[in-house]
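Example 3.
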Amino acid sequence: MKRAIRIAAGEALVLTANRLLDGHIVWRDAEGAWNRSIAHAAILAPDTYESALDSATQSAQADGVVGVYEVVVRPGTIAEPVSVRERIRAFGPTVHPQFATELDA
Amino acid sequence: MNAPVGLYQYQTADREFLASRIAEFEGQVARRLSGDLTEDEFKPLRLMNGLYLQLHAYMLRVAIPYGVLDSRQMRKLAHIARRYDRDYGHFTTRQNIQFNWIKLEETPEILRQLADVDMHAIQTSGNCIRNVTCDQFAGAAADELMDPRVHAEILRQWSTLHPEFTFLPRKFKIAISGSPQDRVAARFHDIGILARPGENGPLFRIFVGGGLGRTPLVGHELFDSVPEADLLMTLEAVLRVYNAYGRRDNIYKARIKILVQALGIEGYREAVRHELSRMDPSHYRLAPEVVAAIRARFAAPDLTASPDADAVLRRDRQANPAFDRWVRSNTLPHFAPGRIAVTVSIKPAGGIPGDATSDQLDRLADLADQFSFGELRITHLQNVVLAHVAQDRLYALWQVLNEIGLGDANNELIGDIVACPGLDYCALANARSIPIAQKLSARFADNALQEEIGKLRINISGCINACGHHHVGHIGLLGVDKRGEEFFQITLGGRDDDKSRTGDILGAALPEDDMVDAIARIVDRYLSVRERGEQFLDTLSRLGDAPFKEAAYETV
Amino acid sequence: MKQFNLGPVRHPAPATLDIVSVGEMTDATRAIRLSPDFDVETLGSALDHLDLIIVTFPIFRDGRGFTQARALREYFGFAGEIRAEGHLIPDQAQFLWTCGVDAVQLEDDTDTTPWLRALTLFPVTYQARLGLR
């Protein structure tokens, strides 16, 4: 199930999902482990992310995550998602600052 | 029997049913974790227990059948917010409460806690008959013809785990009111029911095929006077036609309104009549003794009030203009002398519409005990009603409400904004609804200014699914996504009363940054052009939308 | 495939019947398989010589088979066996039985424990309490 994604120059991809048990948002690191913070996400090149996505999707049940998909980001010290939606997923709801995601978790 | 006022008192069979339902759900969770159920199979099952996987976590939507709950249930909701969530709950536009930070692994335990106070989350989501909504002033309003709650409870029971209608083409929402003032948006439901007394028992006027969402349509009258005995039979026939013929190939065309549109109301009525002609009435008849047995499980409050209650209220109003303003905006006449129905605004200036902290939930429960027979209602405008307050104690109630930050005098005024959770919490949304609601309510915080502006409802939806009911807002805002950025489309002139219509799109969508100013310019223009005695909708229908369009796009 | 009976089958069909689609039906046909969009009313008097009707579920979320089964029993008095085939989950067992389905076809390796459990979970339904059929 490939989705059409728009990637501009300088942008890359990270993989995300929700944890099955508690629903929390997680990001996939270079070792294939799922982390709470986008700061640990492996930055994937547009031409190579598909194999990582395939393997993450295959092992989702074993890894205890659901709904694996890719997110377009601007790489940096902490990858920043391009869309408002994914920024809210990465950093927390804008209306409850006290619920912001801890990025060094 | 020490029944709670205003809602059905559970008996052993109801409690055994809930225990079975929780055991079933625990089994489903176990099968999901073991991989016996795929996520695709598990999803509809958890949804039918109110559990969504939202943007940040699981969200649990708890049913408040016909919007009525008692103080012990409210305290339990406060406890769940405190213990399993992040200390708050969110009242929705369908009289439910949602918790946004729930864990799947804790959900069976939460459901057991709810069951302890005869509550559940059954059918608050999924492609089934959803929690039935009702007039928030049922059994209290002076204008009411018939208290619809007994029949709302019957509909709740009838629709719960219905063997034939649990895997419908799409969700199915039913609302019922007993007032000629349609306070439930009956014409915007899959089925809307207006109840009234007849010579030989209740009669039900049934609308079908209304709805908001992607294709907003006003429902059509299917039957004018269905007698009580035939109520369930008629609904079964309506659902059977829908289950058999509703579209399943396209999720956006799967609601009953699309089928009604395709067949025409005459065609749909014909199909329902054909079903009815084949049904054996003895299998479906709603017997008077069944109704009576359910009615007997509702306790009636003793509404006697002190003979000078109204005089005391008159004096209190004269003594305090702010209180007087609140009484004007936030109360409704009660049928019982000396009593009054109160809408507690959950829309403080700059606040999140419908959000209440655990402490506020607890305090509301206390107020219900002290002022309204321990009974509360949640409104589809995301507020709370205390329905039976003695007029001579209204001032005392208002003082406490002010202490806990819920004393705003803005019911049905511009600060009484209806908003969905939007992109901050919802996985479907395109744009954030809450920040705009917060900025607008802060901008128009002054209660005197709000009264001066008059009846003006703003509804905000973060996407086309329209949970914020933007189509029926006098001013509606719809969030749209433009390349990952938030824009809003404005509609004017929507309403969900007996003159129901959907709003008209004003023009191109504006960026999120410009929204609050654009709405303020529309309101300013209205204040400058309205004639004496006019409300916003009157001015709009007299002048059309041209002046407002000009104002909205002034600086663009 | 194996057959799992949801309860005492009302009138078990013989095991060796040829099952055909509605379009292939002849006067000698005793067992048919319905597609979910089929209007059972059009079977008419053909029902009288059928022993087995199979309702199909392309996916478990498609609930048309419930209405077909119920119409067969209730409107047309079909007394033979109704069987359900396709994508079904144990959580639907009691709904199927209540709507008039006798049995489901399962893969040979399907564990029937959850099916058995589902059938006993809700001894009393709200519909029955309201005095509905």
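The first strand of chain C starts at residue 2 and ends at 5. Residues 2-129 of chain C form a domain with the Rossmann fold fold (CATH 3.40.50).
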